[in-house]
Design goal:
alpha+beta, two-stranded antiparallel sheet, 6 strands
């Protein structure tokens, strides 16, 4: 992966998650739901924040491929939340995106190397995001979590030692929950 410095134009409340969850988090709470990929420059902003701007072009066909990948990822995390594993329909959607690329391994002068090959450049970001999700599943599906705040739709990868992280951001959603509990206690 390349350097991942958030694009200063990126309006999302949670940045820096692994690529698959970062793509999923291009939608966040609001009325209506905010969608970075709906913005004219949103796909380019996401590419920049994800460190992919130099590798992936901002063409409309690539944005469509990334939207397809995001829907497949959304179905998979819904299944994780409900059943602990992606169901057959979610797996089929993820595999459909993965069919557009492959990982070619070779031995180079610096040692083992892996090269991503995709059917067309429009599939690179989508393929990388779904491939990243498979890596996260391998590290522990139970660590892929939805924020516990009832109005938040963001997801994160829990890297805490005990695996008990509940909020996308303690500063935002965690504090809102604490304030609500305090208000209820004070009201009682």
């Amino acid at each position: 992966m390349t350097d991942r410095n958030a694009d200063p134009r990126d309006p999302r409340p949670l940045l820096g998650e692994p690529l698959s969850l970062d793509l999923l988090n291009t939608r966040w709470s609001g009325t209506p739901v905010n969608d970075l990929l709906d913005e004219p420059d949103g796909y380019g902003i996401w590419l920049s924040s994800a460190g992919l701007a130099g590798r992936c072009g901002p063409q409309d066909s690539a944005r469509a491929a990334v939207r397809e990948a995001r829907e497949a990822l959304a179905a998979a995390v819904r299944d994780l939340d409900a059943h602990g594993a992606p169901g057959p329909a979610a797996a089929a959607a993820l595999n459909e995106v993965l069919r557009h690329g492959r990982l070619r391994r070779e031995l180079g002068p610096q040692g083992p190397a892996a090269q991503v090959e995709v059917d067309g450049p429009e599939w690179l970001a989508a393929w990388l995001a779904v491939d990243d999700f498979l890596d996260l599943l391998g590290q522990g599906a139970h660590r892929i979590k939805k924020c516990a705040h009832e109005s938040c739709i963001l997801h994160f990868f829990d890297t805490s030692q005990n695996g008990r992280r509940r909020w996308c951001s303690m500063a935002v959603c965690g504090n809102r929950a604490k304030a609500a509990r305090h208000y209820e206690k004070a009201k009682a």
